[in-house]
Amino acid sequence: MDQELPYFSDKNDLESLESSRGTQLALGRLQRAISDLKRVVVAFSGGVDSSLLAVLSTKVLGSDNTLVVTSVSASLARQERSRAEEFAADWGLNFQEVLSGEFDDERYLRNDSLRCFYCKSSLMDALSPLALERDAKVVLGVNLDDLSDYRPGQEAAKSQGAVFPFVQAEITKREVREISLALGIEVWNKPAAPCLSSRLPYGTRVTVESLERIEMAEAILKEYGFGINRVRHFGECAKVEVPLVDIKRLTAVLDEVEGEFAKLGYASLTVDPRGFRSGSLNDALLVKWSE
User: Fold this and answer.
1) What are the structural domains, with CATH classification, of the chain?
2) Among 182, 185, 212, which residue's Cα sits nearest to residue 197?
3) DSSP letters for 141-202
4) DSSP state string for 54-77
5) Is the pLDDT of residue 284 over 80?
6) Cα–Cα distance between 231 and 237 in angstroms, integer?
7) Is-contact 231 216, C-beta < 8 A?
8) Does residue 203 carry a pLDDT above 50?
9) 158 to 67, 120, 152, 153: CA distances (angstroms)
């Protein structure tokens, strides 16, 4: 076991791995992929992928060789920003924030099918100077399963020199969660939390005002006990997604929720009967992409 997990010198770390043989082997592959990078700048959103990458990079390479960076803009929900900062403090990460400039890019604001490409380009523009100063690589928490989805941002990051250690180590999303659980990373089962701009249908212009409205609407749903939700923004209409098991409960309080949404400027609210689906606005693009 020591040979397969060579970068964990703390006996408690090893004993905490009450996991399957497959998870242990996956962790070994990932550690070796990170070790080969020597110095890294981790793009850190606070989700499970980037959290595992930040923690493991710090363990493998040391905090002096691992800079963990959160990119801040209006597309990052304030709660996600504060949680990322808290996580970094709890784990003793070498952490800082940078401002990204996607809102200065008209191509991003017009919100076509390449919005994510321009967003990741802006992210790399913010992180690359930090990496250059440290002779480091920018690393992103792209896992093997992400490669099958429509994510043009991956190509933008890769074209600017970003490295995907999970892909190099052939780590799936399930393995990301299994390794995170085994290492005691508390966000191991955190649902995906993409940027607020992903709630806008393609072709709807990105504005700070619309993102603030979306953020407040999703916060209202959380106050009503719907921790997993999406508010898809169609102008004055809000289309709400919650897990299928929660639809009946949401229907019972729908009048109250509609009243709260009306205060934000939504004239109508509909509940998607198909339930919560991360990236549901990509459905039309995926059909076209697969043709």
Assistant:
1) 11-182 (3.40.50.620), 196-285 (3.30.70.2210)
2) 212
3) ---GGGGGS--HHHHHHHHTT-B-HHHHTT--HHHHHHHHHHTT-TTTTPPP---GGGGSPT
4) HHHHHHHH-GGGEEEEEEESTTS-
5) no
6) 10
7) no
8) yes
9) 19, 10, 10, 9
pLDDT of residue 151: 85
Kindly calculate the radius of gyration of the chain based on its CA atoms and give it in whole angstroms: 20
CB 90 within 8 A of CB 68: no
Residues 266 and 238 sit within 8 Å (Cβ to Cβ): yes
Tokens read off for 161: 């020199």
Q: What would the two tokens of residue 64 be?
A: 């002096």
The residue type of 232 is R
Give Cβ neighbours of residue 181 (< 8 Å, ≥ 6 apart).
19, 188, 189
Dihedral over Cα of 178, 123, 283, 248: its sign: positive
Mean pLDDT over each residue of the chain, to the nearest integer: 90
How far is residue 94's CA from residue 99's CA, in Å, rounded to a whole number? 17
Q: Does residue 7 have a pLDDT over 60?
A: no
Q: Which residue has the tokens 């009450």?
A: 18
Instruction: Read off the tokens for 278.
Output: 């991360």
DSSP-based three-state secondary structure for 289: helix
